[in-house]
Amino acid sequence: MKKLWLWVTILVATAGLVIWQWQPSLQFPLAFWQPAPSLSQNQRAPMLAAPAVDRKRLLADLQALTFRRYDESARQQARDYILQELQAAGWTAQLQPFTAKANRTNPSGANGINIYAERAGTDPTAAAILLGAHYDTVEVSPGADDNATAVATLLEAARLLGKLPTARTLQLVFFDLEEQGLFGSQAFVSAIQEQALQGAVILDMVGYACEEAGCQTYPSMLPIRPPTDRGNFIAALGDQGHPELLQAFTDLSTSDVSSNQSVSLPLVLTLAIPTFGGLAPDLVRSDHAPFWDKGIGAVLITDTANFRNPHYHQPTDTIETLNLPFFNGSVQLVINAVARLLQS
C-alpha cells in the first residue's frame, strides 16, 4: 500500500471539500467535520443477517499467506492457495493474465495474473458489487498486514456470502502487482464496463491496531483536529459521488448483525473525497484509484498503514505483530457492509 495519507493531506489542503465522519460521533470544528447523511429507519429495507466469521479459519489463511509474495514463484504459491480455497467454497475462478507497461516504479514493465470469481445475484438487471485486494508484497516483507489480512477477508467473504441470496452479483478480484504500480487493478479496470458495476470495496491492510496514546499519527498538514491518537479504528476512504458505499460501513443497523456474531466491530472513520477536476488520479495511489479514474464508485478500507503500523513494508510485518481480535472484527465489518450493499 502506498503512502496514501500524504496524498489525502494534499487533497484536503488544496480542495477544501473533504468530508470526514467519525463513528460514534464526536465534536469537531464544523469547517472540516460534517456528518454524512443517514438513512432513516423507514428508508432501510429489511436485510438478511450476514453470517459470522470463523476466527480459526481466518488465522489459517494468515498462516498460509504470510510469506514474501514478490517474485513470480512466490506469487504463484499465493495464487495456488487462493484458487484452492475458492474451489473449496464452491466458486469457479478465472485467471486473468496481463502485461503491464513500464513506469517509474518498474522501468522494464511486468507480467502479472489477477484472479477473478463471481457469484450471480438474483436480479440480472442489478449492477454488481466488487470486493478486491492485492495479494503481492514488496520484496523484503512477508506482508501479514499488507496484504494477507485483506486476502483472507476476501476468502472469508467467498465462504460466507457465496450462498447468500442477494439481488446483486458479488465479484471477487485478487489483484497482482499492486506494489509495483497498481498494475493489476489498472489492467482489470481497463477491461470492464462501468455500467455493470455498482461499486467496488477495496481492502488494503485491515489487521493492525494499537491502544497506546500517540500510537496513531496523522500528516502534520492535515487541517483538522485528529479524532483520536489511538489506532483502534478502520478508515474508509470513498468518493463523494457514491455515498452509499461509505454509508454501508457507517449505517449498519442491528438487523445487519447476526446474533451469532461474537466479534467486536471496530470503530469506523470515513473520508469522502471529491474526484472531479483531475485531483484524485495524482493524489491517491491504491487499488481504488483506477476505479475512480473510470468514474466507478469505490471505497478503500484500511488500518492507515504507516501512520499506525511500524512494520509497514518491513521484514517484521508478521502475524505476531497483528491485533487478531481487531482483524477478526474488521473482517466481520466488511462482511456485514458488503452483504448490505448486495441487498441494496
CATH secondary-structure class: Alpha Beta
The poorly predicted ranges are: 5-20, 22-44, 279-283
SSE order: HEHHEEEHEHEEHEHHEH
Radius of gyration: 19 Å
CATH topology term: Aminopeptidase
Helix content: 25-40%
State mean pLDDT (0 to 100 scale).
Answer: 84
Strand content: 15-25%
Instruction: Provide the structure class.
Output: alpha/beta
- Shape estimate: globular
Q: Biggest sheet, strands in spatial order?
A: 1-8-7-9-6-4-5-3-2
Distance between the termini: 30 Å
Strand tally: 9
> What is the name of the CATH architecture?
3-Layer(aba) Sandwich
Question: How would you describe what is shown here?
Answer:
30% of the residues lie in helices and 18% in strands. It is of the alpha/beta class and 344 residues long. β4, α4 and β5 (170-175) form a beta-alpha-beta unit. The radius of gyration is 19 Å and the shape is globular.
How is the topology of this model organized?
Layout: H1 4-15, E1 19-23, H2 55-65, H3 72-88, E2 93-100, E3 110-119, E4 128-134, H4 144-161, E5 170-175, H5 183-190, E6 197-203, E7 233-239, H6 243-250, E8 267-273, H7 280-283, H8 289-293, E9 298-302, H9 324-343
Parallel strand pairs: 4-5, 4-6, 6-9, 7-8
Antiparallel strand pairs: 1-8, 2-3, 3-5, 7-9
Give a quick precis of the structure:
This protein is α/β, with parallel strands linked by helices and 344 residues long. The chain has nine helices and nine strands.
